[in-house]
Every structure is written in structure tokens, then in C-alpha cells.
Amino acid sequence: MKMAASQGAVGPATALQGQHYLNVAHWNPGVMQQQQHPLHTARSLERALEDAVCSGMLNISGRKLRDYPGLNYDLTDTTQADLSKNRFCEIPPEVCMFAPLESLNLYHNCIKVVPEAIINLQMLTYLNISRNQLSVLPKFLFNLPLKVLVVSNNKLLSIPEEIGKAKDLMELDISCNEIQVLPTQMGKLLALRELNIRRNCLQVLPDELSDLPLIRLDFSCNKITEIPISYRKLKQLQHIVLDNNPMQSPPAQICLKGKIHIFKYLNLQACRLDKKTDTLDLPSLGKRCLPQQLTDRYLQPCLSSSCLCYFSKHTFILTTMSDSTFRAPYCQHLFVTFSRGNQKDFSSTDPSFTMRRKMEHLREEMEQIRLLRQNLESRLKVLLPDDVGAALMDGVVLCHLANHIRPRSVASIHVPSPAVPKLSMAKCRRNVENFLDACKKLGVPQDKLCLPHHILEERGLVKVGVTVQALLELPSSKPNQLSTI
């Protein structure tokens, strides 16, 4: 309302100021600029061209020019040219003859084609031709020694394969176009640090980008559903922007948690495919090996399993997976504490006994998880994926189980849809809380109820199994009596 009121008062105020200016010699910036615009513009343009002759920096930005004004000036020694915010329909041929030119800014013009004469600019390292009307990037453009190329907000449908020749390119911005596929030759841009492919029509990310030393990657506002597993090799990546994509792998819940969780998911997926343990290729965690004497003395009982050793502060972590017992989604960690200052403490314990006990405990947990899967699949007549924790995390399956035990015990269930295949964390939490409330009302003892984070964070499948088992063991007459009442 305030904005509307101020806009409504503009007309009378302007009229009064104009009348005042005609009667009295009063300085008014708006009126002065309107009265002296042609002369002022011409004089300032001449001054800008004269300064460019002396300094080698041409700045004629924001003057609504349609024709190049520097025909009568010797600007061949220009190293920086700013022609942005004008109305040029083409790159002036005179500018393409500036041999020493290093930076060229053509932002916000009406340019439709890049002329072949631009190849004369063999010292050009910065080119900004964004917010124009380009539909094609010419192949010869990548024969220039460009380090920064900005071609956002155009009408590009594709990127030529010759982009692989731009060996010195460090920053590439092709956002806000209509590009559908990225060429695999982009994997040859070994100097590329920043890549912005935001707001295009991309559906797949090429695996070849995983070989680049990227620091920032922005592929938001596309149609991408999956991050390639090979992207876990991007060890120098500091910023990744992927919002407004129908992400399925990693799931949306993991993407919201940030880069660390995304990389951890990619590593786990790689382990499942390769049938190996999680190598955690994160830059913050390096893989170490135990000393040879400890390996020989204490790890002999574990030679039948696949073992990897990590060293973090004063704790050795043995990541163990037996191919005959455990599947990749359920890799577990065994911890053996080791203090640098007290290495003899190991002599007082039997490592083989400790590790056998750990292995037996893990087998018991695996058996309880198998029982949880069996109970859910038999009652609901569904087939759950290998990763039971991920399948239960949104609470949908558990709410259906409660309604199966007693109809309408969970009145409202948030379920995914084709448009939004993954629920938000808030909706997942509501489902889980509704399930636990239904369990309380149905009579599950308090000591057998799991907590919400056991389901949402996949950290307590055994406790979830206890809750489900207690729910299924409730007397069949109790729900009927409650419903009758």
C-alpha cells in the first residue's frame, strides 16, 4: 500500500518540479539530464574515447549505442574494452582488430552471431557475452586462450565438442540457456575450477566431469535425477548447488544435508557396486594402515574377512565385512582402542575373543533386521528393498502397518507423488511421530517403543524391530474392543 501511494504521488510532484524549473533557475538532476542529454552524452562519449586512447581501457557501457563510435580514434592499443548495456547487433569489426585486447565485456546487447574475425584476439583471456541472443557458439571461439567465458542468458541449444581445446579455461558460465546435453570433451578442461550450468534442460551429468579440479559446481534448476558415483573423486570441490532438481540418487533428504553427506552416499553406493567396504574418499578423512607388528599380532583372526584400517586421533577403526554373512548395505564398524602412550595394554586382553564377540553381536543384529523385514513383508504383502533403513525412514510403511493392525489408527499419512518422489524431512518426521503415537494408543509398552531418530536417521533398526514385534504381538481382541468402544 505504501508503494502504491508513493507511485501515485509521482505525477504531481514531477509536474511541480518542472514548473518550478521553468520559472526559477533551480537545479534538478532529472530535468537537467533530460534537457541536456544529447550534448552531455556526446561530450562524455568523446571524453571516454580520448581517455581510452591514453589509458588503453575503453569504457562505453550503458549508452544505448547501435553503432561503434570510435572510428576516428586510434584504439589499437586497447587491452580492456567494456561495451556492455548497449544495443549492438554484432561485435564491432574494429574491436576484433584490437590485437592486445585481454578483456572484452559485451554483456546485455543484441548480438546474435560471433564473427570469425574474433580469432584475431590471440591475447583475449576474459570474454563476457551474456544476456544476448546467441543460438550457437562457433567452434573457432575455443582457439582463443580464454580463462573466463560467460555466455549465460542466451538461446544456446548445445555446446560444441571443440570446447575440449580450451585448455586454459578456468571458469565457464553457460547458465540460463536451453542446453540438453553436455559434450564429453568437457572432461579435457583440466584447468576448470568453476562450472555453472544452472537453469538448462539437462537430464544427465557426464562422468567425464569427475576428472576435473572443480572447486564450485552449480547444476541447479535442471532435470537431473542422479549424481554419477564417479563424482566422489571431486576431492577439491568446496561448493555444490543442486536445488530444484528431481533428485533420486542421492535422495532429497541426503542432498539437503550438504556436501559431506552427498559424498558419503556416493562412496557407499560405490562400495555396494564393487562389493567392497566404504573407502570414504572425503578430503577430510585419510586412509591409514596399522603398524605391521599390530597387524601381525592382533588381526590374524580376521583374515577371513575383508578388513580396512583407519586411524583417527587415538582410535583404530576396523571396517569389517564378511562376504558370506553381511551384505553391503549393512557394513558395520568394529572399534579397537589404541593409545600411543600405552601400547602394552593390548597384552592384557585377548583380541581374538573381543572380535569374536563383536562378530556374534553383529550376527544377532543382522538376524533381528532380517526378522523385521520378514514381519513387514508378510503383513503388508510388499517387497522391501535391500536397504531396510532407507525404506522405513519416511515412515510411510510403518504407518500402513499400524493401520493394518487397527484401521485408521493413523488418520493422515504423507506419501510421495510422481511430481515429488521424495518427502521432505518435516513430513517424514510427522509420519514417524504419528506411527509412534498409534503404537502407544494400541498398547505397546513404553520400554519397547523406539525413538524418532532411530527411524529418521537409520541408527536403530534393532530397536525399530523390537517396536514392530511388540506391535504385532498385541492381542487381536484389544484393537477390536477399542474400535467397538
UniProtKB/TrEMBL annotation:
InterPro entries: CH_dom, CH_dom_sf, Leu-rich_rpt, Leu-rich_rpt_typical-subtyp, LRR_dom_sf, LRR_domain-containing. Gene3D superfamilies: Calponin-like domain (1.10.418.10), Ribonuclease Inhibitor (3.80.10.10). SMART domains: CH (SM00033), LRR_BAC (SM00364), LRR_TYP (SM00369). PROSITE patterns: CH. It comes from the Eukaryota. GO terms for cellular component: cytoplasm. Residues 362-475 form the Calponin-homology (CH) domain. SUPFAM superfamilies: Calponin-homology domain, CH-domain (SSF47576), L domain-like (SSF52058). Keywords: Leucine-rich repeat, Repeat. PANTHER family: LEUCINE-RICH REPEAT AND CALPONIN HOMOLOGY DOMAIN-CONTAINING PROTEIN 2 ISOFORM X1, PTHR48051. This is Leucine-rich repeats and calponin homology (CH) domain containing 2. It comes from Cyprinus carpio carpio.
